[in-house]
Amino acid sequence: MTISKIGLLSATAGIALIAVPAHAQDEDATEQSTLRNAPIVVTAQRREQNVQDVPIAVSAFTSESLQERGISDVAQLSSAAPNVTLDAGTPFSGSSSVLSAYIRGIGANDFAFNIDPGVGIYLDGVYLARSVGANQDLLDVERVEVLRGPQGTLFGRNTIGGAVNIVTRAPGDEFHFVGDITTGSFDRIQVRGSVDIPLSNGFAMSLTGGYHDRDGYLRRIPYPVASNAIGIENFLAAGYDTSDRTEGGDHVWNVRARFDYDDGGRFRASVTGDYSKIDTSQIANTVIATTPDIVGGAFDVFAGTYNCAIQGIIPVGTECGGGPPSFAYLGGIGGLTGIYDNPSVFGVNVDADPTNDLLPFDSRFITDDIDTSYANGNNFSRLENFGFAGTLEFDLSDNVTLKSITAYRELHWTVGMDLDGSPLNFLHTSFDMNQWQFSEELQLLGNALDGDLDFAFGAYYFKEAGDLHDYVTFAEGLLQVDGPNDLSTENYAFFGQVDWRVADWLGFTVGARYTHESKDFEGFQSDNNGLTYKILNFIGVPECASLTPISDACRIAAGFPNQGQPLRYYIAGTQTKTFDNFSPRVGIQLYPTEDIMFYGTWSRGYKTGGWTTRLSNPLPTAPDFNEEEVESFELGIKSTLFDGLMTLNAAIFTTEYTGIQLNFQQGVSPTIQNAGTARIRGAEVEMSIAPSDVFRLDASIGMIDAEYTSVLPGSVVAPNPLQGGVFAGGDLPKTPTFSLNISPRVELPIGDMGSIILVGDFTHTSSLWNDTERTFLLRRGGTNLLNASVTYRPRSERWSLTAGGTNLFDERYLVTGQAQIAGGQIYGTYSRPAEWYLRLGVDF
User: Fold this and answer.
1) Residue 684: which residues within 8 A CB-CB, separation 6 or more?
2) Going by DSSP bridges, is the β-strand pair 218-220/246-247 parallel, antiparallel, or unpaired?
3) CA distance 804 to 787
4) Which residues are within 8 A (CB) of 262 and not within 5 positions of it... i.e. 6 or more apart?
5) 333 phi/psi in degrees, rounded to 5
6) Which of 276, 53, 54, 66 is nearest to 167 (CA)?
């Protein structure tokens, strides 16, 4: 760590310490104003507590705060919490419902079924196992809690970086309706509403629904020259919808029902059900560069066969070395399965006949506007996501409660993307995922010793199963990936935590979780175009002299592992892995005054391993990766100052991160593997001050230094003209070194007319790397984002009118992207441009 970074961390801790005497000087002051910073109750430790009493770095946001700051989904929380990076979309996922979540440098940037998230997303206490659909619409929530640091003891195995806990609003005991309608940029229409309906004494329900429609911000435009490309329907895909002429749109509707029973007795129950449906375009995709002349690029993996040495046999257009002009032609060899019947490769673009010319893939398809594309291929994203949950509570005594959370969830997702930004079929991806999960959690909660000792013990069971089918078309079918994979997981765990306030000035925390997990996987991925066999046939391997049919001798020579399945890359049969883990937590709390708490915590976190599910060459075994673990130390302070008018919280932390699971690009295949170890150090400060009814200011600062301390030999990427590389001392992806958020709120009374509310939200974030290899063109530069709104609310507060804008500086930065160098391009998704909105809300 550099001296300047150490100085920043020390200064941050100093800010927190300076606050202590400030409070002491104010102890004798008379009460001059009412409490502005009303306490927020959270369940970060599986029981209700004032957020200021929780010895964890946690940011909590109420529904009112979320709406005023324009935060409508989980990804938008990234600007509000320090050292948190939440992005809507991962490389080639095609959907903004997929969440890339990183907290304190730890997370996951993939949607594949084989990799678990590193940040747990919880909805009313129910863990959402997939990153697909994890970017939840924050519809009618009571609050959202962002817990930073490993939360393995109480939340589970895949909260190694932290957790986001979404708590929906409980129905009231009186009839109540709240709703709003919003219009704005790109023909936006959004309608939301929630109604509380009392049914009987102690029994009430709420119904909530929302609809959101918005055009995309990237336009598809026609390429002025005919391409003669074969139609996309000739290649396997999850669908063939190309009707939308924009990308990055929204078309979502969702509904939630909740039934609560509480008659004041010992038994309480809550039953919820939710359903959401998305049917929209792919996330916006812009081709940033093409890589036809890069060594190792544009299928240069086959350059030993298709290069200048074969110019006299198969003309390769204007390029030499296996570049893209040859690929548009080589795909014409024809598929072994009879699906691909492209024209002959011989004489293309070099003879006197212009009618057989094909359009090469190169930089001609890069437009001069990041919001336009020459793409004309698949363009859709469809997701159905639903679930049911029941929470039952029974008071065994005045001090002990037994709680059960039972849940079932299911999702069905199809998506199709044109990633090459051209009328050619050079890189098209589509996916089909089906998943279900069941979970049961039993908790025994209570207190003893006159309330000085709180405890939470529990048992957890989780099971999920499903499939993910990959379809990828490279270079007009030169490589046609057909990748169905089946996966299942079964997990059980036992956990417990005790918090003991042994004296007014001293408290201790001890907790642990034991986890056992088993995973099953079978991979069926294959290349339906049989490129490997064609290469062997072309270079004269005797066993592959004839490919109709493919002989078993040719299969063996090509390295394919399964007799009778010559195109299947994976070894047949179900692969099984088991994991066992013990994650402890120990903490101490010091209370110099009633409103100040110093805390120190040591904890461990854990995430299970799995298998790499994307291959483009046969292997004799299913490649796997191992678990990752963290050991974290944290020191912090939580303080409530000036008779509750100000809260100031700060933390410093250091984390040892081992077995890091990252997505590496190997040839044309993005694969998951263990990279090595890292050291992560950082600091955070959060402040909220409300000196009067008129003004409130929320602010936060995050600083972090996350770098590899060692990198496994197979994961080292040397620096090159396109990439910074992966090596000891290099930075981790998705982790900016500095972030700052300032959110002022001013409420101006205007007599009997009501009030005017002005809200601003400014976030500065330093640069970060969007991918593992640290591709220069994908690096996200430092950003300055400003959102602002003005609201008129009459004195009756029955309705309100808000005018606002997001990204008012029109900062355009890369949210996600991929360096598909071997496939011929570097592409990415840019952030949404500046937008305006107008919202009418009602409340009665």
Assistant:
1) 12, 57, 82, 83, 148, 650, 651, 652, 700, 701, 702, 703
2) antiparallel
3) 8
4) 202, 268, 269
5) -60, -30
6) 66
Distance between CA atoms of 458 and 576, rounded to whole angstroms? 27
In a domain, 822, yes or no: yes
Euclidean distance between CA atoms 741 and 728, whole angstroms: 31
Work out the pLDDT band at 50, boundaries 50, 70, 90.
confident
Give φ, ψ of 154 to 5 degrees.
Answer: -100, -20
pLDDT at 315: 31
How many domains in the chain?
1
- Side by side, which strands form the sheet with 141-148? 58-62, 141-148, 162-168, 119-123, 126-128
What the block records as the tokens of 239 is 């669908």
**pLDDT band (50, 70, 90) for residue 357:** low
Give the tokens for residue 7: 């100085």
pTM attached to this predicted model: 0.90
C-alpha pair distances (Å), 640 with each of 591, 594, 634, 696, 833: 12, 9, 20, 15, 38
Q: Are strands 162-168 and 176-184 parallel, antiparallel or unpaired?
A: unpaired
What band does 681 get if pLDDT is binned at 50, 70 and 90?
very high
Amino acid in the structure at residue 44: A
3-state secondary structure 72-85: CEHHHHHHCCCCEE
Q: Which residues pair with 374 in a beta bridge?
A: none
- Of 283, 290, 321, 319, nearest to 305 by C-alpha is 321
The CA–CA distances, whole Å, from 226 to 419, 422, 647 equal 19, 11, 64
Q: Pick the closest to residue 763 from 715, 806, 705, 708 (CA basis).
A: 806
How confident is residue 21, by pLDDT bands cut at 50, 70 and 90? very low
- Using left for φ > 0, alpha for ψ between -120 and 50, and beta otherwise, residue 824 falls in left
The answer to whether residues 637 and 596 touch, using CB atoms and an 8 Å cutoff, is yes
pLDDT confidence bin for 34, thresholds 50/70/90: very low
Distance CA(553)–CA(193), nearest Å, equals 65
- Output phi, psi for 641, to 5 deg: -115, 165
DSSP secondary structure string, 610-628? EE----SS--SS--EE--E
Q: Which residues contact 549 (CB under 8 A, 6 or more apart)?
A: none
Query: Which residue range is the domain that position 509 belongs to?
Result: 3-292+365-530+567-843
Q: How far, in Å, CA of 314 to CA of 450, rounded?
A: 86
Say if 320 falls within a structural domain. Answer: no
User: Cα separations (Å) of 213 from 182, 191, 372, 591?
Assistant: 10, 9, 21, 51
Place of tokens 């989980």: 74
Return the bridge partners of 411, or none.
385, 435
| Within-domain flag for 547 | no
Q: What is the DSSP letter of 780?
A: B
| DSSP letters spanning 478-524 | TEEEEEEEEEEEEEEEEEEEEEEEEETTEEEEEEEEEEEEEEEEEE-
- State both tokens at 399: 């001090």
Burial 246-259 (b: 16+ CB within 10 A, else e): bbbbbbbbbbbbbb
Q: What pLDDT digit, counting tens, does each position of 398-456 carry?
A: 999 999 999 999 999 999 999 999 998 889 999 999 999 999 999 999 999 999 999 99
Q: Which two tokens stand for residue 128?
A: 């959402």
Could you give the dihedral angle defined by the CA atoms of residues 444, 450, 452 and 458, in that order, rounded to the nearest 10 degrees? 0
The distance from CA 722 to its chain's CA centroid, rounded to whole angstroms, is 25
Q: What is the pLDDT of residues 824-836, one digit of tens each?
A: 899 999 999 999 9
CATH classification of the domain holding 691: 2.40.170.20
First to last CA, the chain: 55
User: Mean pLDDT, the chain, as a whole number?
Assistant: 87
Among 40, 187, 154, 211, smallest CA distance to 585 is for 154
Whether the Cβ atoms of residue 235 and residue 473 lie closer than 8 Å to each other: yes
What pLDDT does 292 receive?
65
The answer to whether position 11 is within a domain reads yes
Give me the phi and psi of 342, to 5 degrees please: -70, 165
